[in-house]
Design brief:
By secondary structure, this protein is an alpha/beta fold. The protein is about 40% helix and about 15% strand. The protein contains ten helices and eleven strands. The strands form three sheets. The chain has a seven-stranded parallel β-sheet, with helices on one face. A two-stranded antiparallel sheet has the order 1-2. It has a two-stranded antiparallel ribbon with strand order 6-7. The two termini are about 30 Å apart. It binds NADP nicotinamide-adenine-dinucleotide phosphate (NAP). The site of NADP nicotinamide-adenine-dinucleotide phosphate has 28 residues, from helix 9. Keywords: Oxidoreductase. InterPro entries: AKR, Aldo-Keto_reductase, NAD(P)_OxRdtase_dom_sf, NADP_OxRdtase_dom.
């Protein structure tokens, strides 16, 4: 029997540990509309029909595209749906990623998210550190957090999360505000946050790995493939099941533009891995 916890606290709600990341619904390079809007809308509706109640998005996906698709597909939203957005970046006319990290830009970004999603209040807004686009780097986030705290006081945000951050930044933020979740790059092959995940678990804070399947180039590993073949499941299902077993505070938001991949990914919640298999998979990261 699979004894892995099926839910974890995110803001005000317990959500299923398998959520959905909407970034892949935009066009190539997360820029512009999808080639097949009907398929994108189907993925979102299938996710909700399958019980997903945690969707990760941002207004800078497209830009605006994924939020507009989410609204088109799902509005009016189920009462228990938790939509999490992130702020801190913007796009240029060619799809390049730029920092939008001033308090004024963050405030405008939250307002844009609310408008495009058709919401009066965001359940969770992640402050996505743009001190470096690709890696968490140390640096003060106080002015940015103060801006989000002000939005919380205005009722536009219910909970604050952090993304692309170091343990030091998480601890500094916690002196200013409760933190609902931390969203950093982490998967079977990128395990730099092992200690942070354990510490967050001890504090009751959700950890939401982005690129849980490896991102734009999904994980490639002979060891992972061999384990999947031995269990008669797919490598991506094993990668997700490993994350679910890794720590109870991990909430998953695998991204896909495919209804078939969505179904496959959601089925990972029923896949229990024995300690021997986990030990074998742990070698992928080493
Ligand atoms: N905070 C941040 O800075 C940040 C950064 C990146 C992402 N995110 C969030 O994290 C979410 C997850 O990351 P992600 O979507 O970039 O990467 P991911 O979930 O690691 O992987 C997505 C990729 O895997 C493919 N895929 C998904 N399911 C598959 C399956 N069952 N079999 C084979 N391939 C499969 C997808 O292609 P198909 O479309 O063909 O299935 C896509 O190319 C995003 O959607 C976004 O919401 C946050």
């Amino acid at each position: 029997m699979n004894t892995i916890a099926q839910t974890y606290r995110l803001g005000d709600r317990d959500v299923g540990r398998l959520g959905y990341g909407a970034m892949q619904l935009a066009g190539p390079g997360v820029f512009g509309p999808p080639a097949d809007e009907g398929r994108a809308i189907q993925v979102l509706r299938d996710a909700i029909d399958a019980g997903v109640r945690h969707i990760d998005t941002s207004d800078f996906y497209g830009p605006h595209t994924t939020n507009q698709l989410i609204k088109k597909a799902l509005y009016p939203y189920p009462d228990d749906l938790v939509i999490v957005t992130k702020v801190g970046a913007r796009r240029d006319a060619q799809g390049g990623w730029l920092s939008a990290f001033t308090p004024q830009e963050l405030t405008r970004a939250v307002e844009d998210n609310l408008r495009h999603l058709g919401l009066e209040s965001m359940e969770v807004v992640n402050l996505r550190s743009m001190l470096d686009v690709h890696h968490p780097v140390e640096g003060a986030l106080e002015p940015q957090l103060e801006a989000l705290i002000a939005l919380k006081e205005r009722g536009l945000i219910r909970h604050i999360g952090l993304s692309n951050v170091t343990p030091t930044q998480v601890k500094a933020a916690l002196k200013m505000t409760p933190v609902a979740c931390v969203q950093n790059l982490y998967n079977l092959a990128h395990r730099q946050d092992d200690d942070l995940i354990a510490w967050l678990a001890s504090e009751g804070i959700a950890y939401v790995p982005f690129f849980p399947l490896g991102g734009f180039s999904p994980l490639q590993s002979d060891r992972l493939n061999a384990v999947a073949a031995s269990l008669n499941v797919t490598p991506m299902q094993v990668a997700l099941a490993w994350l679910l077993q890794r720590s109870p505070n991990i909430l998953l938001i695998p991204g896909t533009s495919s209804p078939e991949h969505l179904r496959e990914n959601l089925a990972a919640k029923d896949l229990a891995l024995t300690p021997d298999v986990v030990a074998e998979l742990d070698k992928v990261g080493g």
